[in-house]
Amino acid sequence: MTQKKILLVDDEEDILELLSYNLRREGYQAFGVMTGEAALKKVETDTPDLIILDLMLPGIDGLEITRKLKSNPKTAKIPIIMLSAKGEESDIVTGLELGADDYITKPFSPRILIARVKAMIRRDTLPKEDTEHVIHIHNGMIHLGRREVVIDEHFVELTYTEFQVLYYLARRPGWVATRSQIVDAAKGTDYIVTDRSVDVQIVGLRKKLGIWGKNIETVRGVGYRMKEQKDDKK
Could you give the CA distance from residue 188 to residue 226 in angstroms, rounded to a whole number? Predict the structure, then answer.
């Protein structure tokens, strides 16, 4: 089996050495860079299967790198695990909103980080859904393969995570999804995030969708659901 390639981006050489040692011991192919600019160039020349990315970098920081990668269709699907000494909830939410797939704070346990990496790789190798699946609901269109959302003939730009949340809810209108189910659907299982982060995602999603966003209903004490579409013939 081909070794999975993991790009490490951190301006601390000791961290790069620690990560590289533990990842290679687990059978991964790990290579590191120390700046955001170098990371973007490396992704272009040798696309990794996963990126472990420090937030605080000289020049282009981790948030900007995430924004660039997730907005590019060629790199949007590369999983990103953010690594930072910043552990406040607001920083975690910002990273998730931009499309990061996981977030680990420094100092970290190498065993926990390896477990997160394995979970991410395992999730990425699961059978994929039909990318041509299109959902038409409430005068809106959601195309999985193109990752496009069109509301009343207007394109709506969403982050990777926002799209995942919307697609998950729209697949089963009327069904209530708990916050943990939404997290699993958007990020995969074995993902740790606060209920507050899910609420922030929903708030941002509704804002971008405008009036259409009212179709995402809050079920107090449980979670959220997509409003059922009424049959006009009835």
Answer: 20
CA distance 100 to 53: 10
- Give tens-digit pLDDT for 34-82: 999 999 999 999 999 999 999 889 889 998 999 999 888 899 889 999 8
Contact 155, 168 (CB under 8 A): no
Burial of 219 (0-12, 13-18, 19+ CB in 10 A): exposed
Helix count and strand count (H, E) for the chain: 8, 12
pLDDT given for residue 188 in this prediction: 53
pTM of the model: 0.60
Query: What backbone torsions phi and psi does residue 28 show, to the nearest 5 degrees?
Result: -90, 155
Within this chain, do residues 105 and 159 fall inside the same structural domain, yes or no? no
Regions in the chain scoring below 50 on pLDDT: 126-127, 189-190, 192, 232-234
Q: By the 8 A CB rule, do 36 and 64 touch? A: yes
Name residue, tokens 């980080």. 113
Instruction: Among 102, 124, 146, give the residue marking a domain's end.
Output: 124
Are 82 and 155 found together in one domain?
no
* Tokens matching residue 165: 């949340």
- Taking the C-alpha atoms of 57, 160, 128 and 27 in order, what is their torsion angle to the nearest 10 degrees? 10
Bridge partners of 31, per DSSP, are: 7
